[in-house]
Amino acid sequence: MDIIENIRNGKDRRRYIAVNGKVVASDGSGDMDTQLLLGHVPVLLHPNPKSALVIGFGAGVTLGAVAAHKGIDELTLVEIEPAVLGSGSLFSHVNDDVLRLDPRLEVVIQDGRNFVKTTSRKFDVITADPVHPWAAGSAYLYTTEYYAQAAERLTEGGVMCQWVPLTALSVADFRSIIGSFAQNFRYVSIWNAATDFALVGSNSPFSIEVETLSERLAEVDVRRQLGWVGLKDSKNLLARLAVETTGIHIYSEDATINTDDNLYLEFSSPLAIGNMCKLRNLCGMKAWYPGRIEMVDNWAPLFGSAREATTALREYREENPARFVRDLPGLPRAKPPAHPEVTDF
Length: 345
Description:
- With 345 residues, the chain is of the alpha/beta class.
- It has a single domain, classed as Vaccinia Virus protein VP39 (Rossmann fold, 3-Layer(aba) Sandwich), CATH 3.40.50.
- Helix content is 35%, strand content 21%.
- The strands form 3 sheets. An 8-stranded mixed beta sheet has the order 6-5-4-7-8-10-9-12, with helices on both faces. A 3-stranded antiparallel beta sheet has the order 1-2-3.
């Protein structure tokens, strides 16, 4: 494992964590947007979460995002590589030093899928950020059997969230991930992050009251963290919704399902390494943007009706296409290490 530091213009310091030579997390703009959404979106979509499971530490940003919601009483992190935890302090400026300071946190050193399969515990929220499916062995974290196991570990009304890459992934492979996930959840949605997607599922219908959502977004730590990436209110957040259940099922119809037996993605996804697939995957999703957003029950006081809201949010997305990829000047910057020598974790 390595920590890489990049300094631009003598002052803009960015840190990256690489495992087996592959960058898996950072405090850069694109990664921060994604990592924060993976934590905040599933918690906000649950009406009253009390327990959460985070699979994979990375830079700790997603864990810190979940921990920002003070209504959560039980917080569990599962991480397969103990050395990754040693990097947590180097990203404390963006993870709120959650490993050291949060008394609710239980850390389990174990393979994430094995934990989900063998534990008897259930959680209101599960969020996972696996490595790209072309990495050797990681396709098992994208199979329909794994998603079924995760669904079993949710409480009634529980919400599952997983990172989905847009780059270096063919349209067929992208549809395979979406279809394999959607097989196991009655209600599914996809949320735009800066460079990727957050895929969210539940076996209970999502039910959002905009007024309540606004109150939860106003919690001190939630507001501060989402403010880093420009998500300052309900409108900004709901504009990130890309596709809901009906569109997802149409989009992924007849997709090849990734299973433990065929392990389709293990052999197919490496073929797209180096290909610029992001635009094709984005365009495929855009075609199914909902004509009416189903998960919001009450739009007041933001909008007067669902149709008005859907139209306004669509226009907002089209008028602000660069907001997902721009540099984010409000992000906290890493401080220079106390000692300049490289630290080996």
